[in-house]
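Supplementary Text 2. Reproducibility record for the structural model of the 209-residue chain.

All settings were left at their defaults, and a single model was retained for analysis rather than an ensemble. We include the record here because the model underlies the residue-level annotations in Supplementary Table 4.
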Amino acid sequence: NRKIVIGVAEGITNTIATTKIFPQTSPYGPQSCSVPLSLQAGMIVYVTKGSAFPADLLLLSSSEPAGIAYIETANLDGETNLKIRKGLPSTASLVHRDHLTNELKDTLACCEEPNKRLYSFQGFMKMVALESRNDRVFLADKSQFLQRGAKLRNTDWVYALVVYAGNETKFMLNSVRTKRKKSRIEQLTNYLMVCQFGMLLMASVVYTY
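Retained model, structure tokens:
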């Protein structure tokens, strides 16, 4: 299993973001431009309605009751019907940024290694109890999984944990081109065409001289 320390990079309070703003020069004067952050496993992102998920995510909470979110996977499988995802029971009620960061600052998430199974996910989240030995463990499965490329629909916003980013996402692993297989007849036809072209070329050279 892969272990993910939440907010390990710069502290969890600095990782909740999906875009950053910087000045950009244009013929019409300075403007603001949004660009994606370099996401990595362990970051928490805030995604709004109509946006595509920038990585493979684990749903924590949303604007809907019980952390429910509706997603569209048309970019992945062509299906336009909405699918329901549910936030982890331990985090579904954490709808404010400060509450979320305080609750998850000593949390470890574990999940399976990156793979091509688009609709499969297994993992768990372990909340470390500092004052006691009673750590809390919550299982996670595909009902909390948000695939990269899917879009958030009918839900104002979600907070989610990045579990796979970049080339490790299921979308990218399934985008690798496979070699095209040729039938024996096609191979034989190509061979005969090459031989015929060679014979015509030799004949033209002989008759020329």
